[in-house]
Structures are given as C-alpha cells and as structure tokens.
Amino acid sequence: MASLTGLKMLVCSHMQSYDHLSNLVVMRATLATAAFSKTAKYFGYGISRSGSDWCTLYVRPSDSPFTEKSGSHETDKERFSDEIRYVKFSSIGWLGDSGFFYQRYDVTEGAHGAAHEDVAGLETDANENAKLYYHKVNTPQSEDKLVLEDPQNPTHMWSASTTDDGRFLVVTVAKDTSRRNLLKVADLNDSRNAEISSNMCWLDIISDFKHEYDVIDNDDSKLYIHTNEEADNYKIKTFDIASNVWSELVSEEDGVLVEAQIVNSDKLVAVYTRDVKSELIVRSLRDGSHLYRPFDKFTGSINQVTGERDHTKIYLSTTSYTTPGEVLCFDFEELEKRKCIDQASTVFRSAEVNGLDPKEFTTEQHFAQSPDGTKIPVFITRHKDTPKDAPFFLYGYGGFSISLLPFFSPSALTFVKHFRAGLAVANIRGGGEYGERWHQAGTKERKQNCFDDFLASANYLVDNGFARKGSIIANGGSNGGLLAAVVAQQDKMDLIGVSIVDVGVLDMLKFHLWTIGRAWCSDYGNAEEANDFDYLYEYSPLHQAALAQEKIYPSMLLTSAAHDDRVVSCHTTKMIAQLQHTQSEKIKLARLETKAGHGAGKSTEMRIAEATDKYTFAAHELGLKWFN
C-alpha cells in the first residue's frame, strides 16, 4: 500500500532522487518515482528533467535490462510508447499488471514544450486543481480515465493505491502538508465499479480533515489503518466495511509508530522511533500483541522495510551517521526451525565508501536545553583526531513532522576528517521525532521554538567544549534553509561563524503565492491573515535583513537552482540582494545552479561540485587547515 506520508514528503521536503538508477534511464534527468506492477511484469517510472517537480511517466517490461543511457524512445527499444505528462507530487498506484493511477495537473498547451525539453519547472504559478487519472498500459494518455477531481476545492491532492488482494481502491485526499486527510475506498468487486471511471461508487470512510489515516492492507472487508487519531505517536486501528465497526489493534506507545506492514501471512512488522533511533517490532496480526524484537542491538535508522504476506523473509534498509548502509534480513521460517531470533537475523549486504573508515568516527547522542526547558536531542559525530573546541557543522530541519533520523553523508564525514571538525544534527521541534505534539510545537506562532532549539544546540556545543565559539557552520535545506537564515540573524552570542542556506524559504509574506507554497500554510500560517502576518514578519529572513542595520550577520552562502519549482529561486535572489545591500562586513554569496531543482536532478559530478563549494566556503571563512 502506498503511504500518504510519501506524498506529503514530496510536497514539503527535499525530493529523494534515485541516482543509482537515473543514469541508466535518462541523461541529465532524475528518476522521480518508480513502482513495479503487481507481479513485477512492468516497471513504471517518472522522469524529472533538470530537477523540476514535474515529471513524465513511462513504462517498460521488467525482464529487459537498461542498455542505453540516452533515455529517448528511439534508443531505448524496450520502453513502451506510453508517455504520461504533467504529473506532479504523484506516486504510481498499480492496479494489478493492467495499469496505474496517478495525479496530474492541467497545463496550458505548449507551456512545457516536448517531454524531452527542459522547460517545465521555470514557472511560479500556483499548483491547483489536481486530478486523479487511470492509465492503461500500452495506450495513449488521451485515453486515460478521469477518476476524481474536486473543482470546489482546488487545493486538494490525490494519492491512490490498491490493497494487496486487489479488492479495494484506496484514495487519500490531502489539502496541505498537515498530518490530516480524507479517506475514500471503492470496492472493485462491486459490479458498479467494473469499469474505472469518474462514476465509481465510493465509500467515504473519513470525511473531514482532523487526523491522518493510511491504509496498511486488508483481510476481506477489514481494513488495517495507521492513524494519529487521538494518538500523537500513532496507533493501528481496524475498520470493517461490512459491519461499519472500528476497533483498536495496536495502542499508542511512548515511541512513534512510523510505519507498519503485514508479512509472513499473520505477522505485523512495525517500525518505531524512540529518542530518534529506529526499532523493529514484530506483532501478531490477530490481536496486535508484541511477539519479539529482531535486531535489538541495532542503533540507527530503518529507512525501509520490504516484505510480502506470502514471503517468509523481510529486508531492512538501514544506516547511521558512521555506517554507509546495511541491508538486514530476518527469516521467519528460520526462526521456526531454530527457535532463536539471532540465528534468524543476518546482514544481507553492506556498503563501503572508499577513503572513509567508519571505525575512525564516533557518534554520541546528547541533549541540549532550550530556553523553555525542553530537552533537544543532538547527535554529535567526530573523527578520532577531532580536538576539543573544533569547528562544527550543525544541521537542522524542524518542520512538517519530518524526522531527521541518523543518516550517512560521505561529504560531511570527509569535511570532519580532513578539517579536524565535527558534525552535529539537532532534532529540533517542528519535526516528527516525538510525534505530532513535537511537530505542532514548532508550527505557526510557535515557530520561534525551532530557532531557539537550534541556537540552544549551538550553545551546548560551545559550553561543553565540543565547538569553538564563532566556528559553528549552520546549515539546512528548504525549511531548514529558513532555519539557517533566521538563526544567522538571531544569534546574539556570535556562536555561528558561517551560515549555509540551501534552497531556503526566505520570503515568509509571499511564499504561499508560488507553486505549491500554499500547502505549507499548515505549518507556517498565511500572511494574508492579520494574526499570522505579525509573527511571520517577526522572523521572515528577507524582511528582517532589511531592518538589521546594526546586526552583523556571519558569512553566508545561499544556494538555489533555476528549475526549483518547490521553493522558487526568487527567495534566494531577493535575499542575497538584500544582504549585499545591508550587510557588507562579511561575505555574502549566492550559488545558483542550472539544470537542477529542489535538491534533485543533479549528477554525481554536480553533487560533488556543490559539496566542494559549500565546504570550501566554510573552510575559507573560518580559516581552517586541511589535514591529510
């Protein structure tokens, strides 16, 4: 089952590119989304040109390898003629092997040029009136069936998937990036739904935007649903369509229930986070009871769990600040034979990075105290040769209920190793590290908590001898770019020596007018509302920079890209103009990329060049020395 959370993360966060596949699919583009059909007969994938959120969907047989890199139909002989355009913020929801559901917008004829051209993504028009369509494999897009639209609510967005048995078509409806959605289901066994169309018979299970509901799967007419209804840390409920009865299967716990899926016939595997570290719990599908915890000594992030009801194995994609990545395997059949959890748990595959020895680095979790007394988790990673009072790269996000779980960054560790520095990640409020309450504590009029938390984390590094005052490099991207810009202005203790603002939301009075920005009002508020205007203006980086005549900002590097149609580049260009006008004491630069978007659409070479520029800028401004 596809998760609504995936749609929301696309709308509000950095797009996660599939770089390991992109170069095989098309040159100078990004694999924006991908999904295999029910039996893996077909592979559906979306190509984003130059990093734009717009993408074009294609289909090819799964049993034919990619042999060409140009991505054009003329050279990719195995790719079908299907070309599905004007797709944005969409998953590929397969209906068996016959076709799939997707979301698209109406686009003025010719506005995006041909599919292979780099035209889409340069506009700033608001994205409204999304529609849900069904595409049958090996047919032209002109024959696609409109399934759902809502002209009365132009901000609504759609995500569709089918249950594993193919019986139910499940549609979640979002209006913004909040953890609230509507839930609709169509029974495909119903004769009235024999044909996919706009006249299907729908059951509105959830008809108001109060909580989040994601369908995990079903047993006959019973749906298993992951929800935050009266549960900030989430729980699992069941809803029986036949009897119209709700029941609670898995109660809320102190850890955040991130996701769950049904595997090995009657097992429910659930991923929790506790103090920003992942845990895997196996439960009984019958009554939700706790059975056992595989990999109980694992410390890090579980990024993905892969398994099926009719398979006896599950695979976990994991990582940490010092581990490039491991795929772990748990074998239920082996557990039955050996009656030992450890013997059923194996490392399937491990990644290695040339030039970086994980054993040379250590990571510790600390807790800083924000001005209101809230404890803020801070992960601190150092090289064995990192001294006390070192320069420190401090990263944060703090928004949209997105959790910053441990991740591996070869570029950051290279900086740490060769500049005798440290890496700190602050899990500030606004994220989802401690559930919905933690998220809400960093939204709207409470957004100042995010900035206070980050500065408290910086102060903790200095007070406890990890970092030298004035040697902290503040960094974040997107909503984190907003964070890095605001703390540069609010840092009254001169803790920060450099601020690197990646694709930041910097004009808080107009962000909602451009592309998908209006969806962020659930986190930020809307400057067209009097009360919201007051607190947005108080921290809006663009407007505060115009007023900060006496405040000396640290050295700053702002980055953006021409095809960023998530946080449009005028945020950055206006901000750098304002900074260079009012702040001449320390250097202020902007790095504008072409053929790239909101963190996506970049080749490996482009990513290396960007990282080199950012770390070189920081090292130059702080006077750091390179050590071999």
From TrEMBL:
Record InterPro entries: AB_hydrolase_fold, Pept_S9A_N, Peptidase_S9_cat, Peptidase_S9A, Prolyl_oligopep/macrocyclase
Residue stretches in coiled coil: none
Enzyme Commission designation: 3.4.21.-
A family per Pfam: Peptidase_S9
Enzymatic class: hydrolase
GO molecular function annotations of the record: oligopeptidase activity; serine-type endopeptidase activity
GO cellular component, one term: cytosol
Gene3D superfamilies: alpha/beta hydrolase, Prolyl oligopeptidase, N-terminal domain
Residues covered by the Peptidase S9A N-terminal domain: 31-337
Reaction catalyzed: Hydrolysis of Pro-|-Xaa >> Ala-|-Xaa in oligopeptides
Residues in Peptidase S9 prolyl oligopeptidase catalytic domain copies: 423-623
UniProt keyword annotations, A-Z: Hydrolase, Protease, Serine protease
One biological process term in Gene Ontology: proteolysis
Similarity comment text for this entry: Belongs to the peptidase S9A family.
Subunit comment: Monomer.
Protein name according to UniProt: Prolyl endopeptidase
Source organism (scientific name): Wallemia mellicola (strain ATCC MYA-4683 / CBS 633.66)
